[in-house]
Each structure stands twice: as structure tokens, then as C-alpha cells.
Model the fold of this input.
Amino acid sequence: MSAGVTWVLGGGSGIGRGAAVSLAASADVVVVSGRRAEELQRTVDAVRAAGGRAVALAVDVGDEDAVAQAAERIHADHGPVRTLVYSAGTNVRNRFWEDTTPQDFARVVDINLTGAMRAVHAVLPGMRTAGDGLVVLVSSWAGWRFAPGVGAGYSTSKTAMGALAETVNAQERLHGIRATHFCPGEVATEILDTRPNPPSAAERELMLTADDVGDAIRWIADLPARICVNEIVFTPTSNTSYA
Done:
């Protein structure tokens, strides 16, 4: 089944890149967005090397007008977005109450949560008209079960993504639109470097890969439109959250 137009925000690296490469196998075109043009081009090259079609569109998810304009451009150039993957996310090293600031908290929440709202808001009109649409909000194990080490901003923003997905499912279901609160455990991506004590290479070897996560997102996207995966949680077998 063709996945139509797929838009991956946070597509320049990590989970976003893994999702773009995997989704390209069934999408008509994958539009990858983020702030770093060079990284976006690397994702486009990876998609093309895998036999898919991709284009890069630089977007700052913190800029409401830029997100809206990007959605309009995608619609004009390729048609309505059928699958939105919001994988943009960040965290800070100084994430605990003893060393964080309200500015740190606001930045994390703005990128992780408010940016997702901006993206969903921008694509919903086209999805409604088409009578079909999938939103995948890449959250975290920490968005499903409290994780004390991730900090107030990250924990709050990722937990709230579950509620954001549910509002889509409750209010847009009769338009054929569904959303998934997507909660992977530890994934070996560059966001791990924002930890106060980044994991070792040996520890990262035991984690999920971006390709693992991308394949799971594609599985959701390839399901019939009558199926809504409201929430999915999966982890590496070595899941250190239990430690």
C-alpha cells in the first residue's frame, strides 16, 4: 500500500533518519525537515540509496510560521501529507532541579511538545480533505512510565505527547485521522550525548538502533487505515530502565 506523502520532522539524524529511510519503501515521497541542511541531505542520500524518493526542506520547529509555510509548500509540490512523523526532540545536560532553569525547561518543552502541536495543526486540514491521515508522535519510554533521570522538561514534554495523540484520535477519528504515541526505550542516537554521563560504546551496542525504530514506524504506516495504533512501547531486551 502506498503511504502517499510522508513528512518527517527531525529527519536529519537518529530516529528521524531511520524512519525516513524505512518509510520511503512505501511512500510516494518522503520530505525530511530539520534545521541542519547538511544532515538533511545525508538523509535524502540514504533514502535514495535505498531506492526511495526524498526531498529536503529545512524547517525550525520552534517557528510557527515556518512550520505552517512548509506544510503549505509540501501540499503544493506533492499533495497532502498522509503520514506525519514528528521526531524532533532535545534535552539538556543540566536537567535536574538543582542546576536547571526555567529557560532550559521552556526550550525542551517547546521543541518536544509545542513543535509537535505546530506540525499536527499544519497538516490536519489536508488530512481532513483527503479523509485519511496518520500522525506518529515519537515520544519515549519516559513518556509512558516515569523515568527519574531524564529531567523535568523532557519527562513533562514526552508524557504530554500521549495526551496530544489522544486528542487527535478523539476529535479527528471521523475524518479518518489517527495518531500514535510512539514510546521507544533507549535508542543509540546522538541525543544520548546530552546526558550528564553519556553511555559508553558498549552500552550503546545493547540499545535499539534508529533502523529498528524506523521499521516499527513503517509497520504502523503500512497498516490499513481502519486500524489505529493508539500507543506502542518497545525497548531493547537489556532495558536499563529496570536497573
